[in-house]
Specification:
The complex is a heterodimer of chains A (553) and B (267). Chain A is built from 19 helices and 21 strands. Chain A is of the alpha/beta class and 553 residues long. Chain A has 4 domains: 159 residues, Pyruvate-ferredoxin oxidoreductase, PFOR, domain III (Pyruvate-ferredoxin Oxidoreductase, domain 3), CATH 3.40.920.10; 175 residues, Thiamin diphosphate (ThDP)-binding fold, Pyr/PP domains (Rossmann fold, 3-Layer(aba) Sandwich), CATH 3.40.50; 71 residues, no CATH class; 105 residues, 3-Layer(aba) Sandwich (Rossmann fold). The longest helix of chain A is centred in the C-terminal third of the chain and has 23 residues. Chain B has one domain: Thiamin diphosphate (ThDP)-binding fold, Pyr/PP domains (Rossmann fold, 3-Layer(aba) Sandwich), CATH 3.40.50.970. Chain B has an 8-stranded mixed beta sheet, with helices on both faces. In chain B, strand 7, helix 9 and strand 8 form a beta-alpha-beta unit. Classes of the chains: A alpha/beta (553), B alpha/beta (267). At the A-B interface, strand 7, helix 7, helix 9, helix 10 and helix 11 of A face strand 1, strand 2, helix 3, helix 5 and helix 10 of B.
């Protein structure tokens, strides 16, 4: 019997900012999922509003995919610049589709103006003609594209335009035969985090706009009426962090979101979390730094920052999802642990996870109930900082009757200020005692995941969004396995050590210049990872890059 | 009034005007309780860091001892978190006019239903006497109450720490006002800025202005200098009705997420 090879096509859609490159790519992805196929939508854009050059690359397959490739089978160009910049990335048999006014040796020119004129349609509808052409080139039935466009647009002109494109004669770049087994979700990491937070009981979200975290604020603001969540933009990140703690004190399940620069401004308030023990989840979406850096591109350079942010000693929990399904679930875990243990949890993502679109089979309610604060504490002889064996002081927000306090100062059980030696020691010990319970909980939350068919002799170690390309690369690396570390603090020492000690060759894959996870592993379990595949140009890994490095190594 | 006391020993300098502010605050809270404007369980006192911040330890109330300069966003978060709570914030001139000035300007703009009491002793006292943005000896002073009016504050008032009935009365009005109330309390610092004699002589109670322009004339009439020709106006300078920030979310009710919603958003 012949081995059934999976079919995979990469489609690049490019053009100036503001002309619908992102929207068209999203619709294509959605229609592929509607048809039963799998797709990953990579979004690449510079920091500007109009003009410039934006592009998306969609990897389309009949098998699950979670990365893109730079070598593409089909280029859809909205302008000449897209052709000029990307025709070198076209595979040998690949084609370029664009309006016939543009020029290229391998161009399949489309009389966009003529079709629009015939339809009496506006120019903006033209992008849908391309969608029809792409669907035809992928040998897909028009029906799923029609369904998606009907759902997304009121105007029937959009469907007519797409059909006009579909009816053109284009030679196929792939012959996909998808079977739709089930309804799947197609969403970005930011959307998964926003929805996961809603699932986890989020009541109030604070943010100041900062790429690549901004979309969470936008999503939640749009969802306010429907869900009752409050999503609030304030004057700066310092206000955001302090207000988020204020809302937490008032009893809300509270969360904030930002990128590295914003989190830097919040450092003092996150340290206040450590002292006040008000539950807080901080979403940190990394971008390439230092400083303003490469603001619309990706990085994993803030791991150390997340693990150590804020002055003084207090537990900081850090969890890093690797894809949208995990983002949805880990956000629930973050809120749950923050509320239950009155802790700071940093939800560590990046541009790659946050702004690219993935397919998810399910978005699961983990059933972790992050108890609203007003149902935790007992009213009898209430002390907001009661010394307990677990280290957790049950909390009652103000308004319930007993006096409730939160403070940046060292304090006694009632929350009143002290500068004495003994209570200072006792409160420090109490704050760190919580870690025991947290460690136990984290051990039950699959803090590490293990993938691959290899016997574990050759092991890739990574965290966060690099999961996508690594999982896809495993198909070409039959002798390799992959250890993904999702909970980075508290560090799952035993689970990591168990896999590392039996491996012969261990390679770290990280979107950073220094390989920060290797340092963390070295510190936590005294295991040295010598081989590192690092990438710090703001671009995510692709399968080809990982496979090449490992096969050469 | 006495059950507003805590067990914490007061560490202000002997004779510090902050004792006067504390007395006026207790007077106002008791009066507001008697008038049934508020229930003590719903009252939250927020402080920044500085001499004023010790109010936190001396008021037997719900409290949040916040960071230097960050009382206002903390107060806003509390109000958004539970709009039923009455939030009174205490901050110093270092807090509100230096470290946290941006928050003050935006607080005026948002007009959330909060009361900010600014202890202005025109010096960084707890760090032993450095200049603040309204220090008399600072030639680069500004006028924060004029800025507040320009930024859209709906309640702007000034009182004097050693005139306890006046301060208590204004604080009551500030808490009753629906919207952001800014009450500056000028006060000498007996150690680093002892201008008690100046204030005693120069404080002049004025009537409420009819317009913002007139209120600006009042606030501009004293530029925080101790020059002999100055008068220091006190009283409620300006009050207006404006929508409150937190009312945007008044109608919202948190509902559990459904799989239907997820399908609608992402399928």
């Amino acid at each position: 019997m012949l081995e059934c090879l999976s079919m995979e096509v990469n489609v690049l859609i490019g053009g100036p900012a503001g002309e619908g490159v992102g929207r068209t790519s999203h619709l294509l992805g959605k229609a592929i999922v509607e048809a039963g196929g799998f797709v990953f939508n990579y979004r690449d854009y510079p920091s500007l509003i109009r003009g410039g050059h934006n592009f998306n690359i969609l990897k389309i397959s009949d098998q699950p995919v979670s990365s893109h490739e730079w070598q593409v089978d089909l280029i859809v160009a909205f302008d000449q610049q897209t052709i000029d910049l990307h025709q070198k990335e076209r595979k040998e048999k690949g084609i370029i589709i664009a309006s016939s006014q543009f020029e290229s040796s391998s161009l399949v020119g489309i009389d966009l103006a003529g079709i629009l004129q015939k339809l009496e349609a506006k120019k903006v509808v033209g992008n849908n003609i391309f969608l029809g052409v792409i669907f035809k080139a992928l040998s897909l039935s028009f029906e799923s594209l029609r369904a998606v466009l009907k759902k997304e647009f009121k105007s029937s002109m959009v469907v007519l335009a797409a059909k006009a494109g579909y009816d053109l004669s284009v030679s196929p770049v792939a012959e996909f035969k998808f079977e739709k087994e089930k309804e799947r979700f197609f969403l970005t990491g930011n959307e998964a985090i926003a929805a996961g937070a809603l699932q986890g009981g989020l009541e109030t979200y604070f943010a100041y706009p900062m790429t690549p975290a901004t979309a969470v604020l936008g999503f939640l603001q749009k969802a306010q009426k429907e869900t009752g969540v409050k999503a609030i933009q304030l004057e700066n990140e310092i206000a955001v962090a302090n207000a988020a703690l204020g809302a937490s004190f008032a009893g809300n399940v509270s969360m904030l979101g930002t990128s590295g620069g914003g989190l830097g401004l919040m450092a003092e308030a996150l340290s206040l979390q450590g002292m006040s023990e008000l539950p807080l989840v901080a979403y940190l979406s990394q971008r390439a730094g230092p400083s303003t850096g490469v603001p619309t591109y990706t990085s994993q350079g803030d791991l150390n920052f997340a693990l150590n942010i804020g002055h003084g000693e207090f537990p900081r929990l850090v969890v890093a999802p690797g894809d949208v399904k995990e983002a949805y679930e880990r956000t629930q875990e973050a809120l749950y642990l923050a509320m239950k243990y009155r802790s700071l949890v940093i939800l560590l993502g990046d541009k790659h996870l946050g702004e690219n679109e993935y397919v998810a089979d399910e978005l699961k309610d983990l059933g972790l109930k992050s108890l609203p604060a007003d149902r935790q504490g007992s009213q009898e002889d209430y002390s907001p900082y009661r010394i307990t064996e677990s280290g957790v002081s049950p909390f009652l927000p103000p308004g319930q009757g007993p006096i409730s306090r939160a403070t940046s100062y060292e304090h006694d059980e009632k929350g009143l200020t002290t500068e004495e030696s003994e209570p200072t020691i006792k409160m420090n010990d109490k704050r760190f005692r919580k870690l025991k319970g947290i460690e136990k909980e984290v051990a039950g939350l699959n803090p590490v995941s293990y993938y691959g068919n290899g016997n574990g002799e050759n092991l890739i170690v990574a965290w966060g969004s690099t999961k996508g390309a690594i999982i896809d690369a495993l198909k070409d690396l039959p002798d390799w396995s992959f250890l993904q570390i999702s909970w980075l603090s508290p560090f799952p020492c035993e689970a990591v050590l168990e896999k590392l000690k039996t491996a012969r060759r261990v390679v770290l894959v990280e979107n950073s210049a220094t390989g920060q996870l290797a340092n963390l592993i070295s510190k936590e379990i005294q295991f040295k990872i010598k081989e590192k595949i690092l990438k710090y140009d703001g671009r995510p890994f692709t399968v080809r890059e990982i496979v090449k490095e490992l096969k050469n190594g | 009034m006495d059950n507003l006391e805590t067990t914490i020993a007061k560490t202000w300098c002997p004779g510090c005007p902050n004792f006067g502010v504390l007395a006026a605050v207790k007077q106002a809270i008791s009066a507001l309780e008697q008038e049934k404007v508020l229930e003590r369980k719903d009252l939250v006192a927020v402080t920044g860091i500085g001499c004023h911040g010790k109010m936190y330890d001396h008021l037997n109330l719900n409290g949040f001892y916040s960071l230097h300069g960050r009382s206002l966003p903390t107060m806003l978060g509390i109000k958004i978190g539970n709009p039923k709570l009455k939030v009174i914030g205490f901050m110093g001139d270092g807090d509100a006019y230096a470290e946290g000035l941006a928050h003050l300007i935006h607080a005026c703009r948002y007009n959330a239903d909060l009361t900010a009491v600014i202890h202005n002793n025109q010096t960084f006292a707890l760090t032993t006497g450095q200049e603040t943005p309204t220090s008399d000896e600072n030639e680069f002073r500004f006028n924060p109450l004029s800025i507040a009016l320009e930024a859209g504050a709906s309640f702007v008032a000034r009182s004097y720490a050693l005139d306890i009935p006046h301060l208590g009365d204004l604080l009551e009005q500030a808490v009753i006002h629906k919207g952001f109330s800014l009450l500056e309390v000028v006060q000498p610092c007996l150690v680093f800025q002892d201008n008690a004699e100046f204030f005693k002589e120069k404080i002049t109670k004025v009537d409420q202005a009819k317009s913002r322009e007139e209120a600006l004339e009042i606030t501009r009439s004293w530029n925080y200098s101790a020059s002999p020709k100055d008068k220091v106006p006190t009283g409620l300078f300006y009050q207006a009705e404006k929508p409150s920030f937190e009312d945007q979310w008044k109608e919202l009710k948190r509902k559990p997420l459904t799989q239907e919603q997820l399908k609608n958003w992402f399928s």
